[in-house]
Write the C-alpha cells for this entry.
Amino acid sequence: MLGEEAREIRLGVGGVVGDRAYGFVDAATGKLISAKRHKRFGRLLNCRPRYLVAPTEHSPSSPIEVTFPDGNSVRDDEAELTRRASELFGRQVRLVTTAPDGVGLAAPGAMLDLAAVHLLAESTLRMLSSEHPAGDWDPRRMRPNILVAGDESADEVQWLGCHLRFGAEAVVHIVGRTPRCVMTTLPQPGLRRDPDILRTIAAVEATSTRSSGEFDCAGWYADVIRPGAVRTGDPIRIQYPKWTRRYA
C-alpha cells in the first residue's frame, strides 16, 4: 500500500520498526501479494494505511486503519479488513504479520526485500529528472525509508561500504544498490503511470548483477549497525571505509 510519512522513525536491528509489519497472502497460492503484480493487485497503491498507535520494537504490529479507494476506512478490525481487501482484489486473501517461507531475503519471516533499510538521495532524483524532465520523480515512486537531502547526498555513488550516522543515535551500513522494477512506473494518488521512469533508470543508473539476472538500480540498501531514532532534519555523517580513495 501507500507509505505513511513520519517525522520520526525508530531503527531496530531488523530495520524500521513497523515497516511492512503487515501483509496479505493470496489464499489460493499461499504467496504474499504485491502491487508489482499490477494487473491483479495494483489497486494496493490506492489504499492508504496508518498506525493508530505508534509501533514499538516490542509491538511492531500496532493497530492500523486502512482507507480504501472508495474513501471508506476500516479501523482496527482484522476480519473486516480481510473482507474488504478480498472484495477489492476479487480473490480471497488473509492478513499476516509474518511472511510465508521463501519471501524476501532480508531475514526469515520478514516482509522486506533484500535488506533492513532502504535509502535514497535527492541528488539521484535530480539526476534522473534531468534525463527525463517530463517525468514526476516524486520519491514516493521509489518507496524509500529515508530520503537523504542536502550536501550529504552529493557523494551517493560512493556510499557502498560506508556507515551513515543519523543524528546522535542510529547508524547504518550500506550493503548494496536497490534493484528497481515496474513498481516505480505504477500510478498512485497524485502520480500517473509512466513507463519511462524505469527506462530512464535503466539508461543512466547502475546495474547490479545477481544470480537471478541483472537489475537496474537506484538508491541503496543498508543494515542497521546501531539502533536508534531517525528524525526529519537530522544531520547525517558519512564514514567512508579505509580502503576508499578519491582522485582528482
User: Anything to note?
Assistant: The mean pLDDT is 89.
